[in-house]
Protein 1
Amino acid sequence: MLQSLRDSFGEPLGTKSAILLALKSPAGLRFSWIVVEAEEDEAVYKKFMHPDSTVVKTSVDCTGRKGYSNVETIVRDVKEEEPRTHILGIRDADYSRYVKRYVVPVNIFLTDRRDLEMTLLESESVKHALRIWAMNYDEAFAKCIPLCRYFGYLRIFNTVADLSVRFHDHLRTSKFWDHKQHSAVESWKLDCTNKFVALSDGKCSVSDVNAFISTNKLNEEDFYDVCRGHDFIKLLSLALIDVQTYSEVNIMKKMTEVYSLDDFKATKLYASIKKWQDAEGVCTLLA
């Protein structure tokens, strides 16, 4: 029965429609449904959920898109249409802590750190495995911090001030990396600040950026809450030099493999899901 539910859930209907279809059967109502942002999240969290009672799937909509807003929408809509559903969503915290108007929706749980990648990187098990795998890991890690941290400041400012700067299209950390010296270019801070200001279409200035960082004391914030994981993994791959061995995909695969149930049980996210599980009267977590 679980396999048939998995099969129906995988139909090209979008996650919400597929869950609602499965819920038409008594078996579907007995399962716990966990909606996550993307495939990387599914690979990590699925390891810690009971396979006979829980289905973990990405937040794909009818257009094929995924993301945190889809997680929130799917969980809300499914619960409204079928209140008996045992459903929760896991999304990256992103910069929600800096947005005063954001309230975490019911049945939605956030990563302990900025996102999944930064949560994994903080784990001692992951650090140990990466140090064994890449002998120059600590040196490469340290090289990535300044640039990634500053990019985090810009991303926070962009989010809070609603500047609509599209980092993915025009402002990437790798553009400020010296591939010959295997480190950030000497003028990286000035260059990326000027690029950010230019992309804001006059909505901010360099002095506005500096004032925002200073006023909000972002220099005092924890690196794992500020840096975007995808930015860091990209630079880490470059800093480790052998980008074929230490590709972004391989780094994420390594982290996913070694991140253990004990690591997960030490997080606030685990505690939140455990509390939800107990309240729902279901067996979702492996332990």
Protein 2
Amino acid sequence: INGKQVAAPYEVGTAQYLIWCLIYDTGWSLDGSFGQYWPSGKFDLETDKKSVLDNINMVQEFFGGMLFWDSKNKRVALVDENKYRADDGFQIRYRKNLISVERKDSHDIITRLYPYGNSNLNIAAVNTNREYIDDFSYTMEVLEDTLVNNDIHTQEYLLAWARRQLSFLCKPRYSFSVDIFMYTQEKNATNPQPVLGKLAKVYDPDIVAGGSVTQRILKIEQNVFAEWDCKVTIGDVYSSLNNHRFSFN
């Protein structure tokens, strides 16, 4: 690393190895509290003349997942959203803490994806001579589109990356923007509080099919002058085209 021979504590090619190498000698470290939630798999990172942050974002594109930044303790972790299902029991309910809720839907669905990497690299040689992959788990209609990632230089990595993108894009996505009344810990410590990256359940039969939905807390906006005034955004995590990074100061 930067001319030094270093014994890496992680297996070469894993997400932990790549980010550990990138932050070596920067004063930052990997957040051990998320050790069991890192994404699986291996990638070969080829990069030049990019910042440490740009390279970390590139690792997130390869593996997917959510970046957790602890700026106070200078720690970072990349977390697989399918492994990290932390739920403190935080709920949003009418006549409890719900003031208003707005649902946003995205029906921009792709069921046949043509992925391309650096220099128009395609997946045909590792995908039975086809340059595309299909996912008809939501609808059998063929809906085609193309995604390009110039940071990928091998066909195997391109195919793995494309499958992850398509698994998300093949079905509708939605999020909820919710205005709530925040019960503070000082006034009522028994009420669970919203925590970035964790799960929350919204109960509103007028807007949620089936009466309730459990999704990831993606954003919290709180009025510093009126701590009870809070807006929470929950929804699906899409880690490539719409990266999610959570900062804890």
